[in-house]
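Here is one chain, start to finish.
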Amino acid sequence: MPPWKKYVNPKFYFVLLIVVFSVALSAVISLSESVEDQSLLELQSLTPAFDIVSHEVLKPLFIAETVARASSLKSHMNHDVIDGKKMMVLLDELSKEFDMNFFVASEISRMQYFSDGSTLPLVSEKVEWYFRAKKSSQNVVAALGNRDDIHIYFDIKIHNEQGEFIGFIGVSKRLDRIISTFENNKNTYDYDFIFVDGNQDIVLSSDEKLLADGKRIKNIRQLSWFQALTPLQQSGSKPNDNILVDVEGEDLLITKVDLKALNWKLYLVNSLQVRQSETIKLFMMQTLNLALVLLLAVLIARIGIPYVQAEFASKYQIDPLTQLPNRAYLAWCFKQLKKEKQSVCAIIVDIDHFKLINDTYGHAVGDVILCEFANLLKTQLRDVDVIGRWGGEEFVILLPATDFQIAYEVAERARVEISKFNFTARGKILSMSASFGVAFRATAYKLEDIVTHADEALYMAKREGRNTVRTTNDLKDNTPQKVPNFRLS
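Its structure:
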């Protein structure tokens, strides 16, 4: 046979289709997981930054604002003559309680009082910030200072009950751990942190080259990645934003967060070059792994589906009232017999005058009778026989590899046992009968067809008085028999 003919085999194309589908599906799943990993990594990198901002920046601000609203502080600052000793005692208590340095700048005394007990006259030559902050329209002035020992300073304006400006309450906190934290985060997540004030000046950064050096303060507009942004993106109109920019062939992810309490912005700048390489490797590995898993799953499914189908059919295709299999299960069993090319007999059973039972005693009693009837029928069958509820008071029995005579004898034996059995409901003893129709096929073809033939024989049994067994052989030649079929005692 020519070598190319093996490729014409439909099974080859089926396997090829499975492989292509597996790889395609694996690629989609891998891409989805890569996006999830990217999002998770970004979230993990942002969390420490927000923790730093919250604990090291916002917490001192909230404490300063709380102290500024304290009536005891306002009372000290609103006197015509400021008691410097009492003021410094109060500031010392605050410093010990919150582990931060506090100071008060008084408009009345034009003195600045510190929690360490020192004072400083408020003159423009020495305390320039006071006069500049006093003219500011903002109630909160924040700044970073002392590069060798970084502190964050918050100055909160204080007004008396008449709304008159009476000075500032200030707080400062050392940020000695912020640089080391920035460095750790940068090594872990390859991020740079940049804090920018309202004038777009860089006040703090994990990149030492961007820090003020005492001679000049760098502005964020000088940075190449910021220049690559659109005017709308540079304006920062969105409170929080994620922007992807290309700077000299390098992809940068820029995350901007507004710190409204300070009128600052926090930028996180991340180079995606290393992460893109890692993502591609992860994508390739996940694609290969998932393709192998899917191919293995197809192989297992090929072997296991028939078994699962049998388990499902036997466990879940059950009539909820009688707990017998339902039509779906009977159809599945018949299909298996057809695959095995077995002969089969079908018996259809109908309870005689069952409507009279429902009308006389109600449907609840009728349900009890149906369950007892189903259990009685099961006791008359062999292990290989299958019985199921066909609908209403009708039941169908499949007898595989059984000839006509044996099927007739099974039906007749069941008919006799039913007619002798005492059914009980509500203290009443009910005796009843059933009619049987039997059909035979040497080769199974369709369940509906053989049941239809059995049903024709059943109709003959009813027509001839019920409580009898009729077969498809009787359709041409039969002897009517009438037997009492229902009694109540």
